[in-house]
Amino acid sequence: MSPKLEVCLTPALIPLYNVEEYVVVVIDVFRATTSICYGIENGAEAIIPVSQVEECSAYREKGLDYLLAAERNGEVVDGFDFGNSPFSYTKEKVAGKTIVLTTTNGTHALHLSRSAKKIVIGAFINLTTICNWLKQQNENVLLVCSGWKNNFNLEDTLFAGAVVEQLKGSGFVVDDPAIAANDLYQIAKDDPDAYLKKTSHSERLKALGIEADIEFCLKVDLTTAIPVLDRERLVKLQ
Amino acid sequence: MSPKLEVCLTPALIPLYNVEEYVVVVIDVFRATTSICYGIENGAEAIIPVSQVEECSAYREKGLDYLLAAERNGEVVDGFDFGNSPFSYTKEKVAGKTIVLTTTNGTHALHLSRSAKKIVIGAFINLTTICNWLKQQNENVLLVCSGWKNNFNLEDTLFAGAVVEQLKGSGFVVDDPAIAANDLYQIAKDDPDAYLKKTSHSERLKALGIEADIEFCLKVDLTTAIPVLDRERLVKLQ
């Protein structure tokens, strides 16, 4: 039987799927999964996603050599090592380190997907690598968009559509959300940055002064590492 | 402040909205809301949507002059007056009658929207009428797609996108799902029937032998009645 390629448009819809029948790709393009892919590519030993700043700072007390990443309103929280910008996840800063990353939407999506066969992390910067890997699995694939506060957002859906674009010739059976995501990607692909400027989220990001981050998050195929969930830690898929 | 125009892509996402701040349009294009619009246009006194065949048949026992509509797998259920085809809702059959209509997805969406300022029913057959009415309300508008088993479907999203198309010049603030729905509508609008043939749902409908129903459900502006919820009954908006 042909494997399925489906898109879960928000974490609120994850309970509609028998997640244990799928390999799940968690998507939170702005900026968590981009930072995770970049950090793992640059030699981070592991990245631990948590949802609350308090959970993150709890790792400080464990006395180990964690780097802690947390921001509120676009500013690094006092006492933390850096924020959520992918530019913080350079080789110099992260090689050999374990990073605790605060990300509400992404952590929520990971948590609800935890019974999946495998959970990997996708972003435009590892797009082709992850698509090639998915083609080799012969498994049902569920692309989980982390969205915004449990609702749909365009940027994660566009990435899902980009994955569908690369996989659709490979014999997967697609569902309606996958068709929609792929069609939206067709509209946006020539200039996703311009396309996403239509969204209200874009105004919010601009107000945070992170336009350079956004531009980075839309770059395609900069990296070849695939982060995979191993208990609560994201590590490099071997 | 400008009113909002937002799209709730599935009933599962309704709890994310403060529904009481919106006029809600419930959408279940194939076929419940099309049949409801057509029935109210043709003089039905009221239409009562229920989710289970058993609830529907309970009305028989109330001894009043109800018409009961229920089908399973595309066939009228034994002992019922008709199924869910809009062609059953002609003047000859429905004028002056109250109809109890079994519709799982649509009833679910109506139930979860019940605290809205007002709930009206939309379908392609009353598209322009409902858009003109919405423009006059000066209220936040939430377009609720009934979807399929709590998940996203393309046909309801396309209708939402058609409403956004007519309203977007009228000063509403739109959200990401509204942008996405409108963009999908742009792709599909020249031939929505062909567009929807891409979907798996289309195969399911074809298997039910209701292609003529589908063609009817995609016709635009056949009617001018707006069904509105009055307690548990849908009646003609005066």
From TrEMBL, chains A, B:
Transmembrane segments: none annotated. It is an enzyme of class 3 (hydrolase). This is Probable 2-phosphosulfolactate phosphatase. Its EC number is 3.1.3.71. Belongs to the ComB family. Its cofactor is Mg(2+). It holds the Pfam family 2-ph_phosp. It catalyses: (2R)-O-phospho-3-sulfolactate + H2O = (2R)-3-sulfolactate + phosphate. The keyword Hydrolase applies. It comes from Mucilaginibacter humi. Keywords: Hydrolase, Magnesium. InterPro entries: ComB-like (IPR005238), ComB-like_sf (IPR036702). Gene3D superfamilies: ComB-like.
